[in-house]
Design a protein that fits this description.
mainly alpha
Amino acid sequence: MSQEEIAIEVLGKKSGYMRGFGVGPKPFNTLIVIAQSRSHNEELRNLKDKISSLEELNAAQNRRFENLMTLLEQNGTLSRSRGGESSSGAY
């Protein structure tokens, strides 16, 4: 008895099996795989663009924060040497 005959006897005949391809899974349709790949690539591109935008926003926010801290230090409102506390004890 061949492997295929044994598999059919044990598992039964199923529509997922293709004649001539043995007992393994039905092969994927190449067009479906290509479409899924393109969809995943587009989603990946969109996510990378979003990450880039968020990194730019984060850098701009960090620059504004540093400018504000410098301004507060220049006005004597904040002393970095005291661990970021204000010289009056309150912000």
